Amino acid sequence: MTPALPLVDRVDGETRIVLGPGTSDSIHAYLDELGARRAYVVTGPTLDAGPVGHRLRGALGAMLVGTYASSEPHVPTSTADVVASEARRLEADVLVGVGGGSPIGTAKAAAFRLGTSERGEDAANCYVAAVPTTYAGSEVTPVFGTTDVARGRKEVLRAVWVRPRLALYDPELAVYTPAALTAATGMNALAHCAEGLYSRAASDDDRARASVGAKTLVDHLPRCVRNLADVEERYRMYEGSIDGGLVLAHAGMALHHAICHVLGGKYRVSHGELNAIILPHALEFNLPHAEAATRELARVFGVDRGATEGSSLPEEVARATSSLVASLGLPTRLRQLRIPRPELPAAAADVMASKSLANNPRPIQSSEEVLGILQAAW
Fold first, then answer.
1. pTM of the shown model
2. Which of 26, 29, 119, 215 is the most exposed place for a label (fewest CB within 10 A)?
3. pLDDT tens digit string along 253-303?
4. In Å, how far are 58, 62, 248, 355 from 257, measured between CA atoms?
């Protein structure tokens, strides 16, 4: 029996956020309120063929004009091109990303291509809606990335008109998300909150939201992984991931995500798993230069009573993060993702080109500092 959970219906910036069990059944009405008439769904093959796809097709009804069910991690440019071309041919006026960061990011990248100018108010001739089933947070941000597969390079862009106009969170759909993906994307959301706590671009409101989100995620992610069919735990995880996504939308990213984007684009490995591996090491690197963030994360992890003998509080937070990752059964080393150690110096050099480094609390002086993080994580 589905617990009595409150319906959340609010607006942040350009995005209407709706959270509650069964809300996906009303997607037609929500899109209709936004003026949509022709919906093109972007998703993956497993979701499309399973109960999530079946339920959404029924809810969209005659509004559905087509489906692209071959989205891939890190959004190859070719897939974004195909979706944009098909959406244009079908005269779609909304791209509905269903699933995790890959399909939602593909919808955003296609919408970017369909834009008529670099001015957001002129470019929204085919807007984006999102029905996330993971905790990636992309559904509330103007950020998207595409990968040049041949070159192994991932480019991350921001464009106001690709930020989804509707983010529809239905925990009854999230129960089909497997444990590994739940855990990995939950760590991605936690990384958004951690970076929000110390990003140079974060406001006091961003940091407050990041604190709430981090606490929610640390408390509920292990429970959710243990109880995948628990609708309330899925609901709470959405609460935390919404906070993480909004922090990312407002405060941007820092060193941690710069590293994950470079490695993800180069080796096509899971973004969530990269987040889980890199986060403890990025925290240990940054937190000595971010006292307030250290105190807050120590409270979140319950290690705020003081560091153990021979260990600093930043080290305690990093150790608690590592313990969380291990308890979730996620990879803890880059070598588990088959990333070659001899190629780490080149990856570190690529990270130095990221604009996200400007938000980092600890200035990055050279690629050798980045390499130190990568080697520690290998």
1. 0.94
2. 29
3. 999 999 999 999 899 899 999 999 999 999 999 999 999 999 999 999 999
4. 37, 40, 10, 11
